[in-house]
Amino acid sequence: MAGTIRFHLDEHVTSAVALGLRLRGIDVSTTAEEGLTVALTDLDARHRRDLPTIMAGDFNAAPDAASIRYLTGRQSLAGRSVCYHDAWAVAGDGPGHTWTIDNPNARSEIDKIVRQPEHRRRIDYVFVGSWHAHPRAHAHVRAATLAFDRPVADGVWASDHFGVVVDLEIGKDG
């Protein structure tokens, strides 16, 4: 069974989600991104299956952000902790920048928002559920590479972000 989930932590969406979470009594910590990340992992916990969960998309956060540290088990948020494997950290080569001035589709937006001429960040991820939540199954990360990190044809770039492609070995244990 395979599936694809794409989401983008847009400022307006995260603000609305954070407000909704607060109204339901869920502490969303200091940023909407953190609150949405906690809500995402709560959703995973409520709908968990036997095989490890795979979450992928644009998280609008660098690897040292609180939301990413939370997802990878290096920080708690709202009194909760989880542990997913960051596929790039496991098997990627190099920094894995997915939003960079090297991409002409991103350059003008980076110039407008970040205002730093050499900006490069990794903000797109593939997270893989760990043994903690799936003790009878595995999802071994075998490789992680960038996709669409060069023009596809005649100087046309596929997106303003580079994609992350991950090879996984998924199965049930004994």
Uncertain stretches:
1-19
Main β-sheet: number of strands, strand sense, barrel status? 3 strands, antiparallel
Helix fraction bin: 25-40%
SS summary, helix count: 5
Q: Could you give the count of β-strands? A: 7
Strand content: 15-25%
Radius of gyration: 17 Å
Find the structural class using helix and strand composition: alpha+beta
Overall description:
The protein is α+β, with helices and mostly antiparallel strands. It is 28% helix and 22% strand. It contains five helices and seven strands. The chain has helices at 11-23, 32-46, 66-71, 87-91, 104-113, and strands at residues 54-58, 84-86, 99-100, 120-121, 124-129, 137-147, 163-172. It has a three-stranded antiparallel sheet with strand order 1-5-2. Helix 1 (11-23) crosses helix 2 (32-46). The longest helix is centred in the N-terminal third of the chain and has 15 residues, at 32-46. It is globular.
Can you give me a brief rundown of this structure?
With 174 residues, the chain is an alpha+beta fold.
Furnish the topology, listing elements before pairings.
Elements: H1 11-23, H2 32-46, E1 54-58, H3 66-71, E2 84-86, H4 87-91, E3 99-100, H5 104-113, E4 120-121, E5 124-129, E6 137-147, E7 163-172
Antiparallel strand pairs: 1-5, 2-5, 3-4, 6-7
Comma- or semicolon-separated keywords:
single chain, 174 residues, three-stranded antiparallel β-sheet, 5 helices, disordered N terminus
